[in-house]
């Protein structure tokens, strides 16, 4: 993949590739002393290298802020869960990683299975603007959604609000449950998150196609798998070729 000047100008119009990095998803990124590291950072760095430009990280703490950064041209590319609500202004690649969305409840809860969640009187806590929020807003018919300020704050909000269920990335919920006794995850998953890269649609079809091809190359060349292993990520699977 050799970008021409048109592609380079479309994806990095300032001469620097600005990548929105969401710290709210621990599978993809985490904070460091000098900014951020993780799978999404590795991919952003490699895309900048292939474009022949420097990289600047636009570090945010929620998926919604990451989307906003790309839509507002404060960032050139981002790393998102594919969702139709985000697709009006963002061109998504095929996914590069698949992540499970799970439910967490208290040990004494009568809720035993995913199908028990959508009941009148149940309050389900999700990170505001996250893929789980978008999905559950469309699909829950009876339960009430309570929105935490960010995905990492879901379990704390769930406990403070005395809600029935917390929803989010399985690995984040598992980590929270290990530090707070009396919580358990429900078996299985209620959704699969398809994590992809995205660019503003107004950057043009050629730019979107270049990033889509980049993602396929990263999967085929083993870069995504190596990044997951390097950062010690478990529970996420490489998405099939798009």
Description:
Helix content is about 35%, strand content about 30%. With about 240 residues, it is an alpha/beta fold. Strands 1, 4, 5, 6, 7, 8, 9, 10, 11, 12 and 13 form an 11-stranded mixed sheet that branches. Keywords: Signal. InterPro entries: Solute-binding_3/MltF_N. It comes from Telluria antibiotica.
The portion of residues forming beta strands comes to 25-35%
Could you tell me the radius of gyration in angstroms?
A: 18 Å
By secondary-structure content and strand pairing, the structural class works out as alpha/beta
* Shape field: elongated
| Overall residue-averaged pLDDT value | 94
Poorly predicted regions: none
Q: What order do the helices and strands follow?
A: HEEEHEHEEEEHEHEHEEHHE
> What is the terminal separation in angstroms?
17 Å
The main sheet comes to:
11 strands, mixed
How many β strands by DSSP? 13
What is the oligomer described by this structure? Answer: single chain
Alpha plus pi helix count: 8
Protein name: Transporter substrate-binding domain-containing protein
InterPro entries: Solute-binding_3/MltF_N
Keywords: Signal
Organism: Telluria antibiotica
Features:
242 residues, alpha/beta, two-stranded antiparallel sheet
Give the SSE layout:
Elements: H1 5-11, E1 16-22, E2 30-32, E3 35-37, H2 39-51, E4 54-60, H3 63-71, E5 77-81, E6 90-92, E7 97-106, E8 123-127, H4 131-139, E9 144-148, H5 154-160, E10 165-169, H6 170-179, E11 183-185, E12 191-200, H7 205-220, H8 223-230, E13 237-238
Keywords: Signal
Organism: Telluria antibiotica
Protein name: Transporter substrate-binding domain-containing protein
